[in-house]
Design a protein that fits this description.
Radius of gyration: 22 Å
Distance between the termini: 71 Å
Structural class: alpha+beta
Shape: flat
Low-confidence stretches: none
Helix content: 40-55%
Strand content: 5-15%
Order of helices and strands: HEEHHHEE
Number of helices: 4
Mean pLDDT: 88
Length: 179
């Protein structure tokens, strides 16, 4: 019999989907916040809230959404965000992108801490365990931070928030302990 030539084989999942059929996931909080901003404009329009009305929306680590603002529909907006009907609707897209931005910001924070710990361990291998314990502690703490997005005039802004309500920005608060 003739020799067989190698062939490529593609195996589909039981659902018949290729990985190329699945939308990519972004880990860029700025990109996701931009998508949330666009969805927020649609939600506000649907609810009859004037464009540019300021709102702060905070997502806690458990996915609960808290809305702060002076508009009469603030509580209605909060209720809608905590029970979106469909991810295809603007309210669902807003929630999904806010939670995505929160997760992406958390991952970026942990990545920065990992880089700091790795660089420190490389310079001082005798303290490697100390640096990696700090990294694990920082990663656990980072998972318990709220994410706050501010909407109003201009592009939305967002940041992780400490338990004391301090904006953590670009993770400049991360300091590798000396001992």
């Amino acid at each position: 019999p003739p020799a067989r030539s190698p062939t490529d084989e593609v195996t589909l999942s039981r659902g018949g989907k290729l990985l190329s059929d699945i939308a990519p996931i972004s880990l860029d909080p700025v990109f996701l916040l931009g998508k949330a901003d666009a969805a927020m404009k649609l939600v506000m329009e649907e609810m009859g809230i004037p464009e540019g009305t300021p709102f702060d929306i905070e997502v806690n680590p458990y996915g609960r959404v808290i809305v702060e603002g002076d508009h009469e529909k603030t509580k209605e907006l909060e209720q809608a965000l905590n029970s979106p009907q469909s991810l295809d609707l603007p309210i669902g897209q807003l929630v999904n992108n806010l939670k995505g931005a929160a997760n992406a910001a958390t991952i970026q924070r942990i990545a920065k801490a990992s880089q700091m710990a790795s660089e420190a361990a490389e310079k001082n291998p005798a303290r490697e365990d100390f640096y990696y314990d700090w990294l694990l502690s920082t990663a656990r703490d980072s998972q318990n931070l709220n994410y706050r997005a501010s909407f109003g005039d201009g592009p939305a802004t967002g940041t992780l928030m400490s338990a004391q309500g301090v904006a953590l920005g670009n993770h400049d608060d991360l300091v590798l302990p000396s001992s």
